[in-house]
Every structure is written in C-alpha cells, then in structure tokens.
Amino acid sequence: MSKSTDQEIKNAAPPTTKDKVLETGASVVQDFAPISSICAHLNAFHVYASDPSRCVEANHYCSHITK
Question: pLDDT, tens digit, for every residue of 4-31?
C-alpha cells in the first residue's frame, strides 16, 4: 500500500454531504474508547518451534490497565 503524497491530498475532492452524514452517524454509534487507550503497538514474527522455516505475523496492541 502506498502512502499519499501531499499533492495527492491537496488534489483530493472535499467530503460530500453524504460522507459527512455517514461519518456523523458512525461517530454516534461507534465508541473508540478502546482504540484511544492504545499506548503501544508491537509487530512481531513468531516462528514455529516444530518447523523453523514457518512463521506467523502478529500485531499486539497494548494499553495500561488500572483498577
């Protein structure tokens, strides 16, 4: 996936009324508190003990937990 350049962002069409309504509706029903509490992200590759030629990618999202 390529990142957008500054020029591409400047040339992007402004959000339509439909886009604004959908974003507003989504913000009413979706709670981003769990996502907002993420303080660290770790991307790791875990190798199989039984077959070192194989591995899986894992993304770990961490947050502080308090009582």
Answer: 677 777 778 888 999 999 999 888 888 8
pTM of the model: 0.43
Question: Which token pair is 12?
Answer: 């992007």
Nearest to 61 by CA among 29, 36, 26: 36
Sign of CA pseudo-dihedral 8, 11, 16, 20: positive
Torsion of CA 1, 18, 21, 27, to 10 degrees: -10
Residues forming a β-bridge with 58: 44
User: Which residues contact residue 52 at a Cβ distance below 8 angstroms, ignoring those fewer than 6 apart?
Assistant: none
